[in-house]
Structure formats: C-alpha cells, structure tokens
Specification:
mainly alpha, Arc Repressor Mutant, subunit A, Tetracycline Repressor, domain 2, about 0% strand, globular
C-alpha cells in the first residue's frame, strides 16, 4: 500500500471494520441516534477517513443494510437449489436463517429497528432483496403440497412471512428476554433450546408428519455465539 511520507497506513480491512461498527451502532441507536463521529471513534479513525469510504451517513446505512439483506439473499437460493433432492430442504433453509442472524445479533436488531423507524425505506429494500427469495421459496412449498408432504391448507407466502418474522424476532429477543428461561436444563443451554424450538414450531406447522422429507433431527447447529 502506497502512502504519503508521514501519513498513517490505512488498515487493509478498513471498510469491513467500518461496516461492522456501523452495524452495531445503528442497531443500538438507530439512524437518527448515531453520528458519523461515533462510528469513526469506534473504528479508531478520523471522520474524514470514514468519509473517504462512505460519502454520507445515509450511504453508510444503505451499505450496511444492503450487505445484510444481500448476503441472506445470496445464500437462500443456493440452499433451494440443493433442496431439489427433497430430503433436508426445510432444515437447510431454517438452519441457515437462524445461523445467519444468531452469529451476529446486531443484523436482526438493525432490521427490526429500521422496520420501525423508517418503514418506507425498509419496504423498498425488502422488495429488492428478499421478495424474489420468498417467491421462489413459496414455489418450493407449493411443490411439497402437490406431493402431499405439506399441509394443503397452508398459504405458502403467508407462512413464509410469518416464519421469517418468527425466526428474526426469536433470535433478536433471545438475549433480552433470556431471564424467562432457566439458565440450566437437561435440554441444553437457553439459546440452543430457543433456536431448536423455533425450528420445531416452523416445521410442525408445515409438514404433515415427522417422517416427511426434511424432518428435523438432532440439536441446533453451532452458530458461533457463546452463551452469556
């Protein structure tokens, strides 16, 4: 990396650091409650250095939200392609959703905060990033209904809407509502139990029997998030 004599070297992962800290601060304080100076201080750089990567606070927020939704949007279609073999399709999708948000709770927190604080902007992002995925997933559910594996009365798109809300909110509030769960149990740690139950609820309301393709067996996959 070339720099002017006496100028500090910029860390090679600076953009990633900015996005990581911005995600955390926007999730905690919202758009209006978070300043570019706060983000720069958290990263350990000067504000002009931050503006070199992102020209405005609005542009930075857009980058944070687009990254969260785009990564999710990139993952689910790949899982759906793998699901054409039938077995394991439901677990693969729901496990990925839970893992994606559980490994960094600020992702889900930010989506919820934006949906409440700036609903018009959030609707547009969901149309762009998530709506195509939901349409494809609804088709997958419809094919399962045609094969007699899924509840015929389920409304595929409505079911997916409710399930996404359940998973995102369940992961988000698993920490702040943690006192409702005992700290120890033969069923496992609180967060593992909550995630496993999320999957069970989503599955049992769609599949006709536990023997149907994609039946959920075993504990919740590791998400990299430690119990507090």
């Amino acid at each position: 990396m070339v720099s002017r004599p006496g100028a500090p070297l910029e860390r090679p992962d600076m953009r990633r650091e900015i996005l990581t800290h911005a995600t955390r601060l926007f999730a905690a304080g919202g758009y209006e409650g978070t300043s570019l100076q706060q983000i720069a201080d958290a990263v350990g750089i000067r504000k002009p250095s931050l503006l070199h990567h992102f020209a405005s606070k609005e542009q930075l927020l857009q980058a944070v939200l687009d990254e969260v939704l785009a990564r999710w949007n990139d993952t689910l279609p790949k899982l759906m392609l793998a699901a054409t073999a039938g077995e394991g399709q439901f677990d693969a999708v729901t496990r990925e959703i839970v893992s994606f948000f559980a490994e960094d709770l600020d992702r889900a927190r930010l989506l919820i905060r934006e949906a409440l604080d700036r609903p018009d902007e959030m609707r547009e992002r969901l149309r762009k990033h998530v709506r195509p995925v939901v349409v494809n997933l609804a088709s997958t559910v419809g094919r399962g209904q045609a094969r007699g594996q899924l509840h015929a009365g389920a409304d595929p798109e409505s079911y997916l809407f409710q399930t996404i809300i359940l998973l995102v909110c369940g992961v988000t509030f698993s920490e702040s509502f943690g006192p409702l769960m005992p700290r120890s149990s033969e069923r496992g740690k609180p967060r593992e139990r909550l995630h496993s139950e999320l999957l069970r609820i989503a599955k049992s309301s769609l599949f006709l029997s536990p023997d149907a393709p994609g039946s959920f067996e075993g504990p919740t996959p590791k998400t990299g998030v430690e119990e507090r």
